[in-house]
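During the reporting period the student researcher (J.K.) took over the structure-prediction task from the postdoctoral fellow and processed the backlog of single-chain submissions. One of the processed entries is reproduced below for the supervisory committee.
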Amino acid sequence: MPISSISSTSTLSANPATLEQIDTTSPSSLTKNSLQKLKDALRSLVKILNRLTLAKEAIMRIFNAILNSILSKFAAKTPLPNATERLKKTPELLVKIFENLPLKGLKQVRLAGRVLEEAANVAIKNVKVHDTDALKGAIRTFGPGRVHVTFASDFRFPEDPADLAKLLSDTSVTGLKFDRCSGLTDAHLVAVFQQCTNLKAFSLVHDQHNQNITDSFLPYVPTTLQKLNLSYWDNLTDEKLSIALQRCENLEKLNLRYCKDIKGSCLEHIPVTLKILAVSSCKEFTEEYLIVALQRCRDLKELNFWKSGRVLTGIFLQYLPSTVEILKVSDCGWSPDAGLGTGLQQCRNLKELNLRDCGETVMESVLQHLSPAITILELSYCQGLTDENLGTALQRYINLEKLRLSSCYGIRGHALQHIPSTVKIVEIFRMNTIVDVPTMAFEQCKNLEILSFQSCSKIARSRFLRHLSPTVKRLEMVGFSRLAEEHLTTALRRCNGLEVLFVISCKHITGRFLQHIPPTVKRLEMSGNPYNGRGDGDYLTDMHLMELQRCTNLEELALSYYQYVTGRFLPYVCATVKRLTISECNGITDRHFSAALQQSTNLEYLNLHFNDRNTSSFLEYSPITLKELHLSGFRTLSDEILGIVLQRSKNLGKLNLYACDFIYGSFLHYASATLKNLRVSNCKNFTVVREKYPKLTWY
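J.K. obtained the following structure tokens:
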């Protein structure tokens, strides 16, 4: 295919017959099974290429990146052709490359697939618009291509629906999302659907802002639709939704979360192309219609059936397609003979399982029949989970990458010593029954990146922290009342690439560990003990916090409930900080706040929560970079100071003034067009009529 023949809207295609011409006997190392995997991988690459509608230069860059990444790994005996020649040969060149790859080349095929997928996603421009001028500008700037438009809550829709339809008639508009839009009507949607002939994705979450919209627009949805999100609809009916599903023959994703009136009969018309189905928290939804959907959608990849109001028998599991990769189910009070084992055994491609409220009779069967290829396992409120059955299961799951346990009160902690070495993420939440974590529990986890213990107050020892892998990038210790500072210090010495650290409500932590905090840390959150009585952690001082000067990459800092911190450290550590939260640290003075704000040249988010002893005078130095400001409980805050803030911080978009008793509203005269969200609840003297500021979202 000559370059001159490729336009910005043309697609690349490979002859399917060419894919079958690969010699199955060429390299002896290729088995018939692995060769078929190569063919399937190549087909997926070609499909992605056919989705792209990029210009010629972009396609050339993609080919350059892919071929260089692949051919550089395998010694090429002949010189590589230049980009022009590669493009002329089209994807048949990829066939020739792949046909002689050894088995390890499958990894490179997946890598190339990810490169192409990223390129396809880049082609989609996601823009959020607040007015018609911004909408016109977005379409003009990013078209031709694929533009997904999100309408902000303050968008003022034209009175004539035809005017809105005309704005969106450009074929580059392929996605629409309406975010709490109060002025939207059914007539607007019908007009838009009739004009948007290339619409692929549509999202309209029903809430108090658009209660005037009914489901009468559904029979007009475009036939080109591939993704449909209708979450939180109380008055959505199966009848209208059935008509929409019959029209969308190529639908791939359907989200009906929290649609309380849906019973499920609409799924009798669900397209067979569907790959993702979410019907969580639909109280009237029945299992029989779910079975109908599973029988129709044999290419289903993800099923989210969460918190149904009806009792589940579990029989639907027998009808799960073998293609399912993600399964999220709750209220699992099934009988052992419901076919759970058969259902999970046939899901050979299952990669992620999320179960909630799984009874004792079912848990054993789940862990026994679950595929060893599982990579993500999340279990919540599963009372049948014990150290014995979990430990046995973890020894089988040799590819596990994420383990999350929450409120499973049959676990005492011994099972954690069987966590496989492949695990990258371990999250333990609300597990007060764990009394001991084996000292060597995480020693074998050489790829561990995230470790989180939250609300596990009964763990007696923290020695396991001494054996963490240096690969850990995020460490969260929340409500770990017996965490020893010496063990935390050892962990910080080992994890020299740490980026996120939470030390919250850990009673015996004083702050001495900060001497060993890695300079790579970007986010730090620390909190004293507001409810559990005074502990050693209450004596954190400015001297300890001065150690943060070494963290030259620190971007987010949050401190709460420290009475003996005066703020002297703030000017020395705030130069790089973008997000700063100080909550109920009443020892910090106005003088140190003022010095910190003058040094904060990058600050975008500031949250000062109930610091009762501060006046508001330091806000006169608010940085011009500020985008979000929270001043909850500032009883000395005045309209005059707020006016100064709004004049200095021209980019401020969100302002929270909860329980600020002495503001009246005159500061709004200085508000710029960027201010979109304002909270004034519990402000006793605020008297401004909200209708005077229609572009503001009051919350």
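The committee noted the following: The CA atoms of residues 75 and 101 lie 11 Å apart.
J.K. will present the remaining backlog at the next meeting.
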